[in-house]
Design goal:
Elements lengths: L1 E5 L7 H4 L2 H9 L3 E5 L13 E2 L9 E2 L1 H9 L6 E11 L2 H8 L3 E6 L9 H4 L2 E5 L9 H12 L32 E2 L2 E2 L9 H19 L11 H14 L4 E6 L3 E2 L5 E2 L5 H13 L4 E5 L3 H15 L2 H5 L1 H7 L2 E4 L2 H12 L4 E4 L10 H8 L4 E6 L6 H6 L2 E2 L14 H13 L4
Parallel strand pairs: 1-2, 1-6, 5-6, 5-7, 10-13, 10-16, 13-14, 15-16, 15-17
Antiparallel strand pairs: 3-4, 8-9, 11-12
């Protein structure tokens, strides 16, 4: 593989490229890396490569001319990758794709970035190494180079090494042990000493699955699982995430289409559909909260019909779903019930269709690792301001592809549960 790194700081790569397996690959000719410095294509006394941005603002922008000449100086650039936070995330799949490249050009930006016209002149493909800010693209280029180069046949020395590691099979790696068999009172798992390679491989697969569920459940959608493994994953995910999440459907205080605070009527459809969603995603519970006594009595009759009455025999699946539905007077009543069930006071997370919510689904998922979460959904046109002020935070609204923004609360509940607990982030 021939790698061309376009950078203002070629010395950044000196030590990493001479260390360990990377240095060995360079010495053997398996990998060739050359540096292209845009400063070598400047013609003023100061070797200027940046200037102030048009339109004003802080920082400097890399000039188009030196970068353009630097890129054109590469005879066989191959795929041209621009290290940028707006790009395709670097993952194992991309690393595998790049490892088959004969030529590869990595473009490292600096300052506030490069003149945007370069992306129209050259086929630059943005690649991101993470959602954070670095001083320049050099660190990201080094990550990308190592991730892809180590997959070149012969780089690792042992052909199976790269395939056995984290992410290669879509899973985190299983734990490793070496001598001695016991260290500070901790023994190596007996199965690894058994000599039974079939059982050892099964143990490693299960251990990889457990590590992935506990630390990176977002990786699971790309993994092919057997029926037994799916049950195991579901059993691990359920108590960890779903059972700590509770929905409260609030009928007061909410706002109507005129912005007035009022009480909305409880509906049969909401109970049934959100009840099914709660059961599907293994939630800790679903509470319908209304201050109107006659509405609570109506809801209890409906639930009784489907959970213990004639409806339970006619439709056992619906009975199972509605068995998780509880009717309470208000939000405080729901929070007390959650605290009784879980032994902890929950995080209170509001929802809204209006812009301004600061919490992401990823943050809610992290909250679930520490304590229960009470997710409040509003009827009518949404939760009243006093409810949102009571919450620890408001979940960012569901964003459609057009200006229309009038999902039913049942649809919103389904989408939010799948984003928080489902297969996608």
């Amino acid at each position: 593989m021939n790698v061309h790194i376009v950078t203002l700081f070629p010395e950044f790569f000196d030590t990493p490229l001479r260390s360990g397996l990377m240095g060995r690959a360079l010495d053997s000719g398996l990998l060739r890396v050359d540096m292209v410095n845009p400063r070598d294509f400047t013609y003023d006394n100061h070797r200027s490569v940046d200037d102030r941005p048009y339109g004003g603002g802080p920082g400097m922008v890399m000039l188009a001319a030196p970068m353009s000449e630097a890129l054109r100086s590469i005879e066989r650039p191959g795929k041209m990758l621009l290290l940028s936070p707006k790009g395709r995330p670097l993952d194992q799949e991309l690393a595998k794709e790049l490892s088959a490249s004969q030529d590869l050009t990595l473009v490292c930006g600096r300052y506030e970035g490069m003149d945007a016209r370069l992306e129209r002149i050259f086929p630059l493909e943005p690649v991101s190494v993470g959602d954070y800010v670095l001083n320049g693209g050099e660190t990201g280029a080094l990550c990308l180079l190592e991730a892809s180069a180590r997959l070149i046949p012969g780089f690792m020395g042992h052909g199976a090494s790269a395939e056995d590691e984290s992410f290669s099979q879509g899973l985190l790696e299983h734990p490793h042990y070496t001598r001695p068999e016991e260290f500070e009172g901790l023994r190596v798992p007996d199965i690894l000493l058994s000599g039974d390679h079939g059982r050892i491989e099964a143990w490693r697969r299960e251990a990889s699955l457990r590590e992935t569920v506990l630390r990176r459940p977002d990786l699971l959608p790309g993994v092919s699982l057997t029926e037994g493994e799916s049950r195991m994953v579901g059993g691990l995910l359920g108590p960890r995430l779903g059972r700590g999440l509770y929905i409260v459907l609030l009928h007061y205080p909410v706002v109507d289409k005129l912005g007035e605070v009022r009480t909305m009527s409880l509906t049969n459809l909401d109970l049934h559909d959100i009840g099914r969603v709660s059961r599907t995603y293994g939630l800790g519970g679903f509470f319908a909260a209304t201050p109107l006594e006659d509405q609570r009595e109506l809801a209890e009759r409906l639930l009784s019909h489907w959970t213990v009455g004639p409806g339970a025999k006619a439709n056992p699946d619906r009975a199972e779903a509605l068995s998780r539905v509880s009717v309470v007077k208000d939000l405080d009543g729901a929070i007390r019930r959650i605290q009784e069930r879980s032994g902890q006071r929950p995080w209170i997370v509001a929802t809204s269709a209006r812009p301004g919510g600061g919490l992401t689904v990823r943050q809610v998922r992290r909250m679930l690792k520490d304590q229960p979460v009470c997710l409040i959904l509003g009827t009518g046109r949404g939760l009243a301001p006093q409810v949102i002020r009571q919450a620890h935070g408001t979940l960012a609204p569901i964003r459609g592809l057009e200006g229309y923004n009038h999902l039913s609360v049942r649809s919103a509940a389904s989408i939010l549960m799948d984003r928080i607990l489902g297969d996608t982030d």
